[in-house]
Amino acid sequence: MAFMEPYAWLRSKFRGCLLGLALGDALGAPFEGRAAVSKAEVRTAVANREVLRYTDDTHMAVGAAESLIACRGFDARHMINTWVHNYEREPWRGYGLTAPRVFEMVKAGLPWDRAAETVGVGGSSTNGAAMRVAPIGLFYHRCPARLREVALSASSLTHAHPSGREGALI
C-alpha cells in the first residue's frame, strides 16, 4: 500500500463534497423550479453551454466555508457579513428574494440575529439554508452536537422559519 499523507483521504472527501455541490448546482441551474427533467435535457444543456456557472447556493456555501476558516469555527456576525460582502461582489449569481432582503436589512442596521425573522411569515421556509450547509457539516463532522447547533444557528441567519432551519439540519 502506498504511503498516504495523514488526513489526505479526509481532505479528498471534503474536496469531493464541495466540488459535487458546485457541479450539481451549475448543472441544475438551468432547470431550477422545474418538477422533472429528463437525462436528455441535461445532456443537451451541458453540450450547449460553454461554461458552467454556479449559483447563489454555491456562492453562499463558499462564504460559509470562508467564514468558518477565517474564524476557526462559527461566528454568526462574521458569516452574515461574509455573505453580504460576497453578494455585493457578485449579485448576478441568481439570488432569490430571501437572502438579499436580509442582507439589505443588516446593512441598514437591523441586528443580524433579527433580520431573517422579518422575511415571510415567521421567516423564510425555503431550501436556501439546506443548499449551503455542506461546509458546516464538513467542519463539524467530528462533533454531532455542535454540528446540529451550528447548522441551526447558521440557517437562522437567513431562514428563521422552523422548516427552513430543519431542512438545513437534515
How would you sum up this structure in a few lines?
This protein is an all-alpha fold and 170 residues long.
Explain how this protein is built.
- With 170 residues, the chain is mostly helical.
- Helices cover 62% and strands 0% of the residues.
- It has helices at residues 8-28, 39-47, 56-71, 76-89, 98-107, 112-115, 128-131, 134-139, 144-156, 162-169.
List keywords for this structure.
170 residues, 10 helices, globular, mainly alpha
Order of helices and strands: HHHHHHHHHH
Distance between the termini: 37 Å
Number of separate helices? 10
Largest sheet: none
Helix content: 55-70%
Principal-axes shape call: globular
Mean pLDDT over the full residue set: 90
Radius of gyration: 17 Å
Q: What structural class results from the helix and strand content? A: mainly alpha
Number of strands: 0
Strand content: under 5%
Low-pLDDT segments: none
Topology:
Elements: H1 8-28, H2 39-47, H3 56-71, H4 76-89, H5 98-107, H6 112-115, H7 128-131, H8 134-139, H9 144-156, H10 162-169
Helix pairs in contact: 3-4, 4-5, 9-10
